[in-house]
Amino acid sequence: MKKFNFNKIVFISFLIFSLITFIFNFDNKLKADPIIYAEQYYLLYAKSNNFQSVNIEQNIFYLQRALMAPFAPVVQALCKITTQEQYIRYKYLFKMHCNFLIMRSYIQLASRFDKEEVYFYNYLYKEMIIESLKVAKYYYELALPYWQEAIKEANNATTFQKYKIDIPQWEDEQAKILSGVYKYDEIIYSRLENLLKNLAFLENWSDSFNQ
Fold this sequence. Notes:
Blueprint: H1 6-31, H2 38-48, H3 56-68, H4 84-113, H5 126-157, H6 168-179, H7 184-203
């Protein structure tokens, strides 16, 4: 009588289970709705944007794709649209909001690498801080064009100012951009000025730590 090989049975069962799982998951992916529209990318951003596990780079990617993708049919808009004028305003505010969020995300990334004050004992980490400041500078400079685009789209939406949409956050955002409540260009330039001052100091800093 042939000896019962338990390990072989377990191994074969595992392979079969793995194959079934793969086919099931693959089939589900085929059935899933393809990501085509701007609103779909925006909803991916909204879904991933949480305080527990924020992935800023991923969120920026979703928002950038949202700006490049075509808009969904009107019935699939993120709020109820009843007139053509309202729909045009909706699209302007959508682009304003995405640019605004990308700008803030880049500032958030820059802040992780920026250093507002340089102290005498920082000399030991001089090269590391220099590289960190260069990364911060790169992100601040990336943020500026998106802020300018947000302003442009906010101004474009004023042509249809009386056709408000039912997304209070976007309406409030536009009002604060146009009224100057939001001054992100000043914030960015101020941080860049301080960063460049610290960078110049560090690059010309002589070794005086041990004197």
